[in-house]
Predict the 3D structure of the following.
Amino acid sequence: MIAALPMYLRAETRPAHDELWSRTRDALRARGVDAPDALGHNAPLDETWLSPDLLLGQTCSLPYRTRLLGKVTVIGAGDYGLSDTPPGFYRSALVVHAQDPRNALADFIHGRLAINGADSQSGWCAPFLHARARGLRFHQTLTTGAHRESARAVAEGRADIAALDAVTWRLIGQHDSFAAKLRVLDWTDPTPGLPFITAVANDPAPIRAALNAALSALPAPHATALGLRAVVPLPQDAYTTLPQPDPPPTRANAPKTGKNTVFP
């Protein structure tokens, strides 16, 4: 069996992820569900998501509806206590340099948008739809491979604007000194959050129950580190009715960083 929670994993959150899993594992075993001893922190994303041995994983909603639909079962989505966002939903912060004098989205559409990847709901689809709803479109993108690197690109002046998953943006604000060089220009509309998934043959109910039991008993420092309050069920059509984005313009690509190229 495989369990992996890579989407909000970083050095500062790894102990909390491990504690969450140890409690989830024990809760699953108490319910008669076999569970691996530890999370697979370095498991390749696509192999993990599509493995018939997947017990617990988490993916972005764009790859879920474009590549994983019908091949995995959704357990639910996280309630991360985000302001102005329903439980189980998230949104993107459109961040710019703190010293940039521009204050309207229209001022940035000819600049460089840093995106973590073309298959990211929060990094590309959300800003694409946000701009389109206002009769705008972005003309240049810088592909960085991770939200954190997109934020860093704006802070360092290599990009003009980035769309960052709200949970990741919160973590950046807590742990990265370059966050002081950034400010939020705007927020995209909420959309269903990153789905927790399991192999298509598995029953999601006991896994969701075990996760919520573990979350309710998580020690305060770990609960604060994750910011995850609960896993709530969402209907499949909450994801499948979302619009698809056009491919991003690739005039300003840069080498991707890190092992993973698909992030929230």
